[in-house]
Amino acid sequence: MPTTANGRRARTLKNWQFDLIFAAAIVLVLLLFHLISGGSFLEWSNVKGILSRSAYPSFIAWGFCFLFACGYTDMSIGGVVVLGSFASCIFGNWYGLPGVILGGLLVGLCLIFINFLIFTYSGIPSWIAGISLAMIYEALAFLLKISKGTKALISTSLDKEYRVLGQLPWCFILLLIGLVVVYFLYNRTTVGLNIRALGGSRDVAEKLGINAKKTLLFVGLISGILVGVSCVLQQSYAGQTTVKTGLTSINMIFQPLAIYLLAQIIRERINIVICVPICAFILYSIFNLLTMLGVPSGTLQEACLGAFIVIFGIVGSRKVRGVVK
Amino acid sequence: MSGGTILEIHGLNKHFGPTYANRNIDFTLRRGEVRGLIGENGSGKSTLLSQIAGLYRPDSGEMLVNGGKYDPHSPLDANAHGISMVMQELGVIGSLPAGVNVFLGRTGQFAKGGIVDLREMNRAAAAVFEKWGLRMPPLNRLTENMIIEDRKMIELARALSIEPEILLLDEVTQSLSLNNRNSLYELIARYRDMDRSVIVITHDIEEMIRITDTITVLRDGQVVGEVVSAETDPDQIRMMMVGRQISGDYYRDDTTPDCDGETVLSVRDLSVPGELEDVSFDVHAGEILGFCGLSDAGIHSIGKAVYGLIRGSGTVHFLPTDVNITSAPQALANHIGYVPKDRDREALLIHASIRDNAVLPSVEELRAAAGLLPPGRVNSMAEGIRSRFSVKSTGIAQTTDALSGGNKQKINLGRWLAKDLRLLILDCPTRGVDVGVKAAIYALMKEAKKNGIAIILISDELTEVLGMADRLLVMKDGRVTKEIRRDEDFTEQSVIGVMI
After folding, report:
1. Does the distance separating the beta carbons of B137 and A5 come in below 8 Å?
2. B271 neighbourhood in chain A, CB within 8 Å
3. Residue A203 lies in a domain
4. Terminus-to-terminus CA distance in chain A, angstroms?
5. Chain A 7-46, CB below 8 Å of chain B: which residues?
6. What's the confidence (pLDDT) of residue B19?
7. In CATH, what number does B249-335+421-500 get?
8. Least CB-packed of A325, B280, B319, B467 within 10 Å?
9. Which of A11, A197, A199 has its CB closest to that of B273?
């Protein structure tokens, strides 16, 4: 039970009560979706599709947890995903499943780590540096697409037999492994606590002996691995990646960002790392339902998503009576 | 004070740009000694402690701990030499739980196989609170939702968790209410008994004389004298601090309550769940109504509730305009001002300029056609506040975070007094300010009172409310338990008897 500003007890919901209500609300919403869709929403094939689709953005949203926790942002992640997915596809077609995994993982890891080297040592605000890097990565992807030597490689889809990681049960298993690893990294390791301390107050953190630069490079490493996994999942799910130019790669981070924002709203009651896959599932359930109802994908669905986030934010941030922030 | 020398400082110098913060400091601390450091805001006290704690490196000079050369490169290095500090500015991470904050930077000691055992860490944190008799906040709760006092307790626990031989306390007591302050006094006494040493900075001279063995007085970055606490008095200390005689009677010297003026505010049955219960009172024009109580008494919630920052049941009726105050904008529009306790987090835009901070509550009055703020009017008002309240600064464009605590408070208070107010709510207005600024604030309160402004004075310092208030409401557990008028039994003993 939370205490008030005076340190005395206030009448509020207990954590288990909140969890129960939250779980019941999700079940009710899903049942409602099922009814609205005329009984097709909860069909296993449909649920499987939503689960598979939720995996890739969940890893990016977890990456955001670390990025935002230390007070940084990276606008180039979309560009990294495009390049990583290309690598996953090319190496996958050459070397099979190990190529799919290593190609995406290494490109994601290296590029995000390079980004963090630049953020840490250049002194340029990360959102500005991120936009510049996004332009570079987009241009690089475009060059690969038009260059004689790589054009054919880029245009070829990933062979179907190497796409297993984007399908159930593998994407779900990866999601579970990711959940456990990220949960412990974020909440229960010294590096996770140091990252969060750095975002809280770099000045205080440094006074307490936390090495800011080293910690930031750890953020680059962790986020790089998470983005790398999402490159693998993205390629395995879609089989092909489109080249983005004119900073349109930034669009690719909006859905993971929406997931992060949803998770952020309820983080006071449920750990943000656990919230991420739940919110990803909710988000893609909404998209799925809208598609079933014939709402055109794109702008109209995104408008619905925006409205949903606003409503969720209002409900989620309502102050519990007696608690003064 | 029994042992030999534990800390020696010879010829220490530190400057920031052209300003000397410390000049040729010589200082010796003995084992089991409680030493007070006192001086006006900007006299170099915190800079000296910061160098001892490894936050700053001296420009020149030498420090010795237990006879060995001591040149700390960081606070962790100082910890390794048995020295830790509780800083004046808040030093907790809001996005982390209290238990983690106690061991932040040292969480690795609880890691097994790379995973930090949070339960073990919380157990260790709880043991520190228990050992030193400190009030323990919920250890799993994020500190961003905690009051300033709880956050200070966490910092204190963090400093004590390394079992330091020398504990440095920079204006800690000012953030604490009476009961927690008493816990700290007991802690200091225990430290002395354990033959460990403490250096304390506080602006409360009487408190300093009471809790220390010796006092070092600093002025303009230099040591101007050292006295034995038992052999000195507040007037001598004040004179050493400012270099001239300052009378101790900066409080009111009359005993006549002034509570017969027109009623300005009428609060009835004000309740905020978990904070206030059925609080009712009136405030009159030209009256100073004091509120005091222990840390969980709810006195700080009174200011917030009256100003409309927290809402509950009951009424806050502002009589001059016949409105019930339910929100801060409404309070502001009805000539009510509020100076909160937590200056840096709740009152000032700490990274904004003096100009922006000074004019913020007066934007409506300054606004010209089409909502534009004429720079001339804005600058003139900010300059006026800066000069009227003698804010030591380079100009109105200077950022507020570069100012000393006293000068920040002058802006915080001055911007309200520059307005046409009917009611002013002051929550711990002299927290962390020196004797000179304190005297200036009391003088401003007396002037405001003379001009018919009703004042609600909430304070953790009993002497302050007793010295300034016409009436005093003593609170306990969110309720008003006693009202005492200035012409009645207006003494510390009678108030403490009700508070506890």
Report:
1. no
2. none
3. yes
4. 15
5. 7-11
6. 66
7. 3.40.50.300
8. A325
9. A11
The alpha carbon of residue A265 is apart from the nearest alpha carbon of chain B, in Å, by: 14
- Report whether A280 contacts A259 (CB < 8 A): yes
Distance CA B65, CA A316 (A): 54
Closest by CA position to B311, among listed A219, A321, A89: A321
CATH code: domain B5-242 is 3.40.50.300
Domain of residue A112, residue span? 44-249
Q: d(Cα A100, Cα A83) in Å, to the nearest integer? A: 13
Which ipTM did the prediction report? Answer: 0.76
pLDDT of amino acid A14: 64
pLDDT for residue B430 is more than 70: yes
User: Could you tell me the end-to-end alpha-carbon distance of chain B, in angstroms, rounded to an integer?
Assistant: 32
Contacts of B274 (CB under 8 A, 6+ apart): A3, A4, A6, A8, A9, A10, A11, A322, A323, B478
Identify the H or E element spanning A301.
helix A299-316
The full set of domain ranges for chain B reads: 5-242, 249-335+421-500, 353-419
Q: What is the pLDDT of residues B49-90, one digit of tens each?
A: 999 999 899 999 999 999 999 999 988 899 999 999 998 776
Task: Using CB atoms, pick whichever of B76, B105, B275 lies closest to residue A5.
Answer: B275
B310·A324 Cβ contact <8 A: yes
Angle formed at CA B458 by CA B457 and CA B463, multiple of 5 degrees: 85
